[in-house]
Design brief:
Radius of gyration: 26 Å
Strand content: 15-25%
Largest sheet: 6 strands, mixed
CATH architecture of the largest domain: Alpha-Beta Complex
Helix content: 25-40%
CATH superfamily of the largest domain: DNA methylase specificity domains
Oligomer: single chain
Number of strands: 17
Length: about 375
């Protein structure tokens, strides 16, 4: 029998009582207030919102150790758990996060932090496009509260596991970043070798009917909420896939290149599927009998890495038409380049293989053992 099993068997053999969260925490929300003008930016104290530290300010509201539970905005993580932040020291917290401390010595705040990461918070929030975890609903979240010795033992295990997990993730992240840099160099080298012969601006290729450029249409969160569905909507983004939401209608179904107009000009390859792009994204279709779409995507991505777009210089179609220029090698050469780069790209980026899959497996392993430790038999009344 393990140490934690022995402690549970000794202290709570018949189970653990579920207690509403509001009965075991003090909610310090009433002490929150907006940041004053003279207090803003570049100060020594962390300023927290729902998703963590957003800035540093010149004053603080709280001093101690706190559990910050997302109240509105992005209150749900992709895995369905609540947005939680562990905060210590002198901090400022805005009105997008509940500020919690234990109401008595019978609850370990660190245990509560770990327990809440296992809660599927969706059933406790209200609102549509702007979900909110109000105090009433938050107070009703049931928490399994074992004896304090059990809590301490679980915290000790999970803290150790978390530290090891963080070290392993840091190693994998470093390796992944190294592979990404290696891939970027490899991609640019191969693309450069393929760019032999006369070059053409995108505007020239467009005038010849080889490519076509355009922008998406306005699709807001409100629009998506009014017609929910399964078709992805891509918007301006500098990270991830650029997906903005899921909609009940679509603009395109064919192969395209899209790019972020407001999000730094990054290019995305979109294989054939039903989807839409918003007005802050551009789209490009290609005559594949002359230029392979995926080949053009690689060429443009390599060129984009040497450009800088921001709020003053945006990647509008009118800008990139005359900015990027490419040569057009034989289709067999294009296909060869695509095959080589696709193989390496899968290792670096595909969540089903390579290092990202190993990183994801580590996270899933941690969540499995965490949930197992925090699952208790409920004490019968």
């Amino acid at each position: 029998m393990s140490r934690i099993e022995e402690v549970i068997e000794r202290l709570c053999p018949d189970g653990v009582r579920a207690i509403p969260l509001g009965e075991i925490v003090k909610n310090l929300d009433s002490k929150r207030r907006p940041v004053t003008r003279g207090n803003r930016r570049n100060g020594p104290f962390p300023y927290y919102g729902a998703n963590g530290i957003q800035d540093y300010v010149h004053d603080y509201l709280f001093d101690g150790t706190f559990l910050l539970l997302g109240e509105d905005g992005s209150v749900i993580r992709p895995n369905g758990s609540p947005v939680l932040n562990w905060a210590t020291g002198k901090i400022w917290v805005n009105n997008h996060a509940h500020v919690l401390q234990p109401a008595s010595h019978s609850v370990d705040l660190r245990f509560l932090y770990y327990f809440l990461t296992t809660v599927k918070i969706g059933s406790f929030i209200t609102g549509g496009t702007q979900p909110k975890l109000n105090q009433r609903n938050m107070n009703g979240i049931p928490v399994m509260v074992p004896p304090l010795e059990v809590q301490h033992e679980i915290v000790k295990i999970l803290d150790t596991f978390t530290d090891l997990e963080a070290e392993l993730e840091a190693e994998l992240e470093a390796e992944l970043e190294s592979r990404r840099q290696q891939y970027a160099y490899y991609e640019e080298e191969l693309v450069s070798r393929s760019q032999i012969g006369p070059t053409y601006r995108l505007s020239e290729l467009e005038s010849q009917g080889i490519i076509s450029l355009g922008r998406g249409k306005v699709i807001s969160k409100k629009t998506i909420a009014a017609l929910p569905g399964d078709y992805p909507v891509y918007s301006s983004s500098g990270a991830g896939s650029g997906e903005f939401g899921r909609y009940g209608d679509y603009l395109f179904s064919g192969e395209r290149i899209t790019w972020s107009i407001d999000g730094g000009g990054r290019f995305f390859y979109r294989p054939p599927h039903r989807y839409s792009v918003t007005n802050v994204s551009g789209w490009m279709t290609v005559d594949n009998d002359i230029i392979r779409t995926r080949y053009l995507y690689y060429v443009l991505t390599a060129a984009w890495r040497h450009e800088k777009f921001d709020y003053t210089r945006k990647a509008h179609p009118s800008v990139i038409r005359d900015l990027y220029h490419i040569s057009v090698p034989p289709l067999s050469d294009q296909d060869r380049l695509v095959r080589r780069l696709d193989t390496f790209d899968a290792l670096v980026n595909d969540l089903n293989s390579g290092l990202p899959a190993e990183l994801n497996a580590r996270r899933q392993q941690y969540e499995y053992y965490r949930d197992k430790l925090l699952t208790f038999k409920e004490l019968k009344s």
